[in-house]
Each structure stands twice: as structure tokens, then as C-alpha cells.
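Step 1: inspect the first sequence and its C-alpha cells.
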Amino acid sequence: MGGEEAGRVLRSGLAMGADRAIHLLDQKFKGADEFAAAEALARAIEKRRRRGYRSCRRPVRRLGTGMTGVMLAEFLGSAHATVIIAVEATDAKTLRVKRELEGGINETVELSMPAVLTIQFGINQPRYASLKGIMAAKKKS
């Protein structure tokens, strides 16, 4: 959800191996708060709903409350977890996630899919996009 810069970021994610991306581009989104963003994202996802998990950038930088993913999960009626530092798919219908709580305490939670996760920065090292991936990204939607 954003301007041309968001489109470039999405193409980069596709080149790194993401299967799909949805770019919401509309002037009415400019300056949207987290509630409006979550609602718009939920509508777009519902139109293309697939089994699996979605990820949202945490937090929305303008407000910094980190609530977009939580509200998105509520709109979608999906399970959710925040401040995730590790994710493991235990089977086709369940995720085991490790959450970082205050005071350095970690909590492990199992969620049924589909689920919305908000991921802590630094959970992984993104791979570089290969030339083949960049060319394939042009064909993905």
C-alpha cells in the first residue's frame, strides 16, 4: 500500500522468491492511519484469499504503534501473533512461533493457519535477488 516506491519494494520481494504481491495504489490511501490501512489490506486479501500466512511490515512507520497486523487479523478473522523472532511450520495447518516479550522473555505459541504475523526486524538475512529471479519477478503479479 503506497506509491511507486512500494511497487519497487514489492518487485524486489518477488525477485527474492515471494510468490505474489498486491500493490494497493490510490490517492485516498495517502496519509491513512493504521485502521484504514488494515481495512484496505483486508479487503484486498479477502479478494485473493489463499490458505497460508501473510506478513505485514511492523510497525507502520508514521505512527509506530505496530497495530496494523493485529487489526488486519481481526478484519480477516485470522489468528495472529506479534513481535515474532522465529517461525516454524509444524504441518500444513499449524505454525509454531517464538515471540519476544518485555524483559527479554520469549514465549512459544502455536497458531492455526491462515495467520497474520508481525515480524521483528532482523529475524532473517534476506537473500540477494538473482538475475533469473529479477526476470521472473516481471511475470509475477
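Step 2: inspect the second sequence and its C-alpha cells, then contrast the two.
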Amino acid sequence: MVFPDPHGGATAPDVLQLSAGCPPLRLAVCHPCDERSLAATLAAVDCGLIEPVLVGPEQKIRQIAQAAGLGLGEIPIVDVPHSHAAAAESVARARCGDVAAIMKGSLHTDELMAEVIAADSGLRTGRRMSHDFVMRVAAYPRLLHITDAAVNIAPTLEHKVDIVQNAIDLAQALGTQTPRVAILSAVETVTSKLRSTLDAAALCKMADRGQITGGILDGPLAFDNAVSLTAAGVKGIHSPVAGVADVLVVPDMEAGNMLAKQLEYLAGAESAGIVLGARVPIVLTSRADPVDARVRSCAIASLFRAHAFSRGK
């Protein structure tokens, strides 16, 4: 049986269009010592998204730019000897307010995040840090937030509270006033055999009690019920979230990473992503990320920062 399209052929908004009008974000590009990092930086500048500060070994950066035919113009470069120093300097500049965001270049994620989470010199807040993938899928009419697929490996219930709140805050920054949050599992019923279903039930009750604010939560929900009105209807699930979710909260990093990459590589989804919960947004790119994904990530960082500034944060 072929079911009609319940979304009427609508498409999700483009984050680059959403960010039009945001002031350029002063951003430290940490160790941009490969062509893709530099190309993405220049592309984001051309889009009016960022005012970059390149942090890394200056001679190496200029050699890479020259070999790739990339003109750095008047972009400032903070000369440091290696990637570890670049991470420390980028975080220090964010900590003192010289930059309002950080974008990872060609260093390892662990190297940058070690400086970000450092107890005395990092960018910690009272909120746990988490990563949010923002996916634009042709078959779905709203932006999909997938979290956490890059930072928290096996989050506890307490971690998931912050993961959910971070995602709600970002979704609001991108224009969804009251995000619908689906807490994912393999089944739709609560069972002690699956911890993810217990966490889902607890998170929903915590939202009822005001421990999570700004969104509508439901779960446990399987992926099909979260994004398909048809699937939810067939299974008799009556929920304000089922079939129309804005945020998908995954049980662990493995599930989230696989889900996000399946949507990107098999469904052709446009992806972007940032780390939330630090003093500044962090554009945490993968070495495989194309230039346009990095530019979109700068766009959502800019939107998030502008939204936080408008609320006095």
C-alpha cells in the first residue's frame, strides 16, 4: 500500500537563509593546517558569517593557502608552534571574550576538547556539553536535531537532561519556538530490559516537573514513530511529538553517529553541527566534512550566538 505524503511536500528551511542578517561571528579557527579548513573559512567569510582569527603555525598556514590558491587577504593569524598550543590559545581567546566561537581545524577532536573542558582554564559552564547535528532531509519538512552523536559516549540520565536542554535551546535559536523532542529507543513501551526506555520515561516526567523547559517531550519512541505520522498512526500512538519531531535524542553516541551519517550519506541530508553547553559555541567538524557542511555549521553557531545575545546571555 502506498500512503500519501502526510507533510504535503513541504521542505525544511535552509540554515544559510535563516542566518541572513546575523552580524558576522568573530571566531577562532583552531589549527587550520589543511586545505579544507582554510577553504571553509574563506567560504564562510564570503557568506558574511564570520570574522575569523586563524590560530596555528603561520608559515605552515600560508604555505598551504598558497599551494591551494587560497588568498588569505587581511585575515589575522596568531602564530603558535603546534596544534596543542593552537587549542590552548583558541580557548584562552574565547575565555577572555576576544572571540565568540571556535571552529576546529585539522587537529584531533580530543586535543581541542581537552582544552575546552579543562577545569581551571577551559570553557565549562553549569551545563554539560553536548553536540547537536542539524540535518536538512529532503523527505522531512523540518530541521532534524540529532543529539548527542559526537561528545557524550554513554550519557547518564543526568547527562541527558542537559543534552535535551541544549538541543531545545538551539532549535529555538533556529526558529522553532516550542521544539518537539522525541526520546528514541528501539520500542515504544517502557521496559526494564532497555535502559533507554527508562531514561525516556524519566525525562518526560522531568519535563512535566519543569526540570527541562521550552520543549514538548515524548518517549520512548522508535525512529519511525518519531518522524512518520503514518507509522505512528498504524501503531496507534497518540502524541504531540510522534511523526513531527524536531529533536531526536539518541540513547548513546554510537546510535547517534550512525543515524546522522546514514541520513547524510544515504539520504543526501545536508548536515551541520556544533557543541553546546560551553561558554561559546564550538564548530566541531569532522575531517571528512565538506566545505558546505562547515559553512552551515558556522551559520548555526552564528544563529545560536545571536539568539543568546538577544536574551542577554
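Step 3: confirm your contrast with the notes below.
The chain is about 40% helix and 15% strand. Residues 1-7 have pLDDT under 50 and may be disordered.
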